[in-house]
Amino acid sequence: MGRHRLLPTACQCFSRGVKLVTALLVLNPLKVGAERLPFRNYAVGDGLVHSRVTVVYQDRRGYLWFGTLEGLSRFDGYRFVNYGTADGLAYPSINTIREDSRGRLWVGTNGGGVARLLDDPEGILQQPGTAGASRTRFVSYKVGGSAASNRVNAILFDRTGTLWCATDHGFYRWTTPASVVSKFELVLPHRETANTMAGCVDARGHLWFAYFDGLLEIVEGRVTRHAPPRPYVPTDTLLHNIGGIIEDRYGRLLVAYSDGVYAFLRRTSRGDLGRWSQLSVKLSPSQRVFALEQDPTGPLWIGTNKGVIKFEEGRQRTYAAIEGLAMPYVLALRRDRDGNVWIGTAGGVSKLPGETIVSFTRSDGLPDQDVVLITEARDGRIYASTRLGGIVEMINGRTELIRGSNRPPFDSAQYLLAQDGREAWWIATTAGLFRFPGPRLQLQRGQNVRVTPEVSVLHGSEFPNDDGRVIFSVHRDAGGDLWAGVGDHVYRWTAEQKWQPVLHVESGASDLLRDRSGGLWFSSSKPEIGRWANGRSTVLEASAGLPEIQSRALFQDSRGWLWIGLRTKGVSVTKNPAAQMPTFINYSTRDGLASDAVWAISEDEGGRVYLGTGRGLDQLDPTTKRIRHLTTADGLAGDVINKLMRDRHGYIWVATTGGLSRVDPRALRSPSRPPSVYLTQVAVAGQELAIPTTGSRHLRPTVFQSWQNNLRIEYVGLDFRSERTLRYQYKLEGLDKEWSAAMDQRSLNYARLAPGSYQLLVRAVTEDGLFSNEPAAFNFRILAPIWQHWWFVALMTCAVTCTVLFVHHLRVRQLLAVEGIRRQIATDLHDDVGAGLSQIAILSEVAQRKDKQEAAPLLSESATLARALRESMGDIVWAVDPGRDRLSDLVQRMKQAAFNALQSNGLRVEFSAPGPTEQARIPLLPDRKRHLLLIFKEAVTNVARHAQASHVRASLTLNGHALQLTLEDDGRGFDPVSRNHGQGLDSMRRRAAAINGRLLVDSAPGRGTRIQLDVPLR
Fold first, then answer.
1. What are residue 232's phi and psi, to 5 degrees?
2. Average pLDDT estimate for 49-71
């Protein structure tokens, strides 16, 4: 019973529990959240071939390579290029990546031996053991005959170029890497195991392999074994997985075993094989180490299954998912040459550019992500005021809510002020101005301060500020005095604990600043920017250096310069704010600012000015005029910036609408390395040139044909510090005289380039103004088209000349032919027609003197002669008719003459000629067709008068470029040699000679006659 009386009831337990929790909340306000680092995470959705990243490597060109369970990914800062079994890898899972002395990339797979990247555009190699030659990106080599021997954990190259590799079966070497036939030699076998191994080369060139049985040291081919930190236990295989081996800045070998990091002190004397010691890295009972990387600046990075540890001088800090890491299960680490740490995890790869920017958002404990003000207490505490969620204190990377600040009227506080000279806190809210005793900010004991032009007194916290005046601004000057813009007056808090009116501002002072000379600067919504000094105020007027008089922020830097953040015109600065009429210099988007609306201004210890805008944070160096942009892409919590402040440690605190950020200007000052730039793709007339897989800095000179004058070039700059702000310039020598403007596009297109020699130059430029040490170059020449070659021009000139001469010759020939036909016609008219008409006239006169019976024969002869003259005139008219210059017209005329002269006299006539189409296409000169017709008519007339034939065959045939006329009869014939055949045959020969023809007469008495005429058509 007594024992039961000592036990509290359930209600009592609950009541006591509530009281305890309440007391704890009162004594220890809620501490939540953690700082968020600017991790940049990449996964399959970003192009990575697989999210489980087992190895990270940077080659000498600067590309990053990620080995995964399903292939290899290459990253240039913009995109991933992936490789798998289709590209020549014998096995997709990658364990290690290494370069040899010639810069060739090698990978060790988890079942396919080793593979080498074929980064040669001309190389088409045949993979050993396969049939046929196919173009692949990798060639693979088997290490041994067993499956364990082809699970390669680490690859190293010694000074002679020999390849050494650690496999699950043992250690192998290959003295002739990349030969056609692989000849790996087993150097040291061990029990087959699935434990991971690692390797490194120290500063002396010694090769070191760490495995479950200790260390293997290789010096000039000699192998020395060193014992492990503790004996190998076969049942405890997990503890003997090797996460990595490196040489630290002190010359020690650090080996990451699963249960911790061990340092191996190498032998210092003969017989001393070295000794082990364990680093004081603190791991949880279930935490295991899987990766190791040394930062040359000091920290040691340790990858575990619960995040990555930054270890330095005995202090350690763990980054996990809450700080922004893609996944806490870390499998690989690599620090690139730009200072970034790349973390391969089971859920992708994360890039940590350092702790330049640390951010806090709502997910990190902020009650409201819209942070309106940040201030530093006199004792160094940092406080941030949110728009609707209250006030938080920043403690060791965490946020701690100030009790009561999330309740009205403080949940909508607009200004959080530093202490005054008595360390009291002042807070301006929509309910008035409150004052709380310090030194630490608390909202439990304070007063609502009523400010009027007549009286200034302190009231209890329950007494409202009912004067209806709006509090526009409160400012603490360098001496600790407070200045407040309330209503249409500016007040100063005096040593007598009273607010004293000092200045009347009709539209209210929205911002206040007291400079070193004692002048009070103010701005209002009128708009108006003015200065009050020596009891009088001066209002500034707009000028070239001060393009508007609407201010968002006032700031005086360490040099005493006054900066004015303008509403829509950038920022203006005067170097002598105490002058009666200060002159200003203006900076805007024309000078490189991200925005012309400047909301906040601050300065770092180096004198560089920070401008908070609606598009991020701009860092302006007044000396060099260089501007650097920082946005959410660089780790800022938000791009719309409300306030800026520099603390006593030199950090710049940035209050944004997306959270709170802390910028380390010292890290921003780290010198950049000039970026390398490579040509990655060149396509000419739609056809890609063969260039190395990873691009080339110098492509070999190329000659293109005239029609290959459309070029597309792609390029990339490798700078992982500022890949998002990297810009490019190009110049095509032979077309451009100057470099182009800097731009972020990574491709060029040239269309219809003129023939000539060109050199394309491309260089990258960082935001710090550093250019590539050596631009990427491509020399090429476009040949002139064939019609622009001298020999073609000469040939065409000759051809045109010959054509003109030929046409002229034809024209002259035509004219001569016409002239000849004219003379012939004149002769015929004179000889034939004239003589015939004369004869008709004589016969007519004789017939007139005769009687009718005697005159009849004379008249009949005159009629016959007249008909002959009419026919002769018809032949003349037909010969000169230009519409009758075709062979078809000649054929028709010949047929008509043959049938009129022969068939009408009872002879059987056969006439053959080419087809109508062929006749119509052959032209004849006037003299040719007339001579041909007259020769034919003469021959036909002779047959009709003298041959006494019964059958006549006439034919026209084409023989090449000649025309053959044949006339055969079965008459009595004659002797062609005899002189008694009259003038007809001689006339025919003369006409044939006139047209360059050849007349053949084959006849004999009693066997008929055959006449053949061959006439060229040209």
1. -70, 130
2. 96
